[in-house]
Model the fold of this input.
Amino acid sequence: VAEILVGAGEAAYRVVVARGASRGLGARLREDAGASPVMVIADDTTAALLGAALAEAAGATLHRVADGEASKSFAELERACTAAAAAGLDRGSTIVAVGGGVVGGLAGTVAAVYMRGVRLVHVPTTLLAMVDSSIGGKAAVNLPQGKNLVGAFKPPAAVHVDPDLLLSLPPRQLRSGLAEVLKCSMIADEQLYGSLLANHQKLLDLEMDLLTDVVTTCCAIKAGVVTRDERETGERAILNYGHTFGHGLEAATGYATLTHGEAVAVGMAVAARIGVEVGVTPADVEARQDELLDAYGMARRAPGAAGVEDVLAAIGHDKKARGGSTPWVLLESVGRATPGHDVPGDVVRGAAAWALGA
Ligand SMILES: NC(=O)c1ccc[n+]([C@@H]2O[C@H](COP(=O)([O-])OP(=O)(O)OC[C@H]3O[C@@H](n4cnc5c(N)ncnc54)[C@H](O)[C@@H]3O)[C@@H](O)[C@H]2O)c1
Ligand SMILES: [Zn+2]
Done:
């Protein structure tokens, strides 16, 4: 059992990573809750996987949403808060998120605003949620105008990570989460890079002890970064490696054709190419990243997925929102990335054309 502390002082919380960590959790949640009602939020798939049984064991209300990004909406935020009120949740109550990043984002936002804030516990069920979205305290829902526009910082009281839950995850979702894992190694941990490269087949085949070690390492990396920089004034930006272009590509493709991880993988390849071009990334570092992405079958380009100008416009939209030029996160070596690089527009356009061209 690995226990990772996130944050400092009173707001610090523990991420527990252990195979089987979700077993027996219901009874413990019930004990922790005392007399206050508990509400479990899950989507249809994660309710059947764990959420319904957990709610029953915890004596909690189960609030179900449909699978998919559409459930991270303002309408679902209202529906969940209304359900919380109807179930009699009070200031001492706990909201338990059982699911991927969608459920975590919705449940975190509910826990941030219902009665000006109640306890939140994350039980992540996707690889992305285990290593990324359940740690760091960012919670949000979407508006028609854009993703994550309404939300709050809502650090959980605890995160329970049970890697065995990944056994039922569809392969494409697993690979999507693995992109964040590969990212972690490139920005922060050369030893992890070596182990990911050597063990790629075993990890893709879900060798659970190995996968548990990798999940633990990635949780610790994210925990370290967000502990040192909770409000994203500096170091935390390195977690966005591969995401500048990745988010632009997702937006330009209407979040429909590529998973987040697939877009991030292309974004990592683009960032490395840009890094080499502007003299920040040594060529052999780009080659080693290529080798890693290839080992996991992650495409480094997305020919024809979107128009170059559409992706650049989507990246620029972000830039306008911040009122400056888009700062890029670039690799300096395997295991080290630095934020805040200004990149000339023609270099970005060239890399985008490479990624999207036939
Ligand atoms: N808060 C943050 O810091 C942060 C960081 C990264 C991403 N996110 C958000 O996370 C969201 C994406 O999350 P996601 O990739 O986990 O997607 P998701 O929550 O939509 O889950 C993907 C699909 O897998 C299913 N599923 C979940 N666990 C399963 C399991 N164990 N077995 C079988 N099926 C399972 C779900 O029902 C869903 O259909 C996005 O909205 C993104 O904005 C937030
Ligand atoms: Zn991501």
Notes: The pocket of nicotinamide-adenine-dinucleotide (ligand 1) is lined by residues 43, 45-46, 49, 67-69, 72, 99-103, 105, 125-126, 128-129, 132-133, 136, 138, 147-148, 165-166, 168-169, 173, 176, 260 (CB under 6 Å). The longest strand covers residues 146-153.
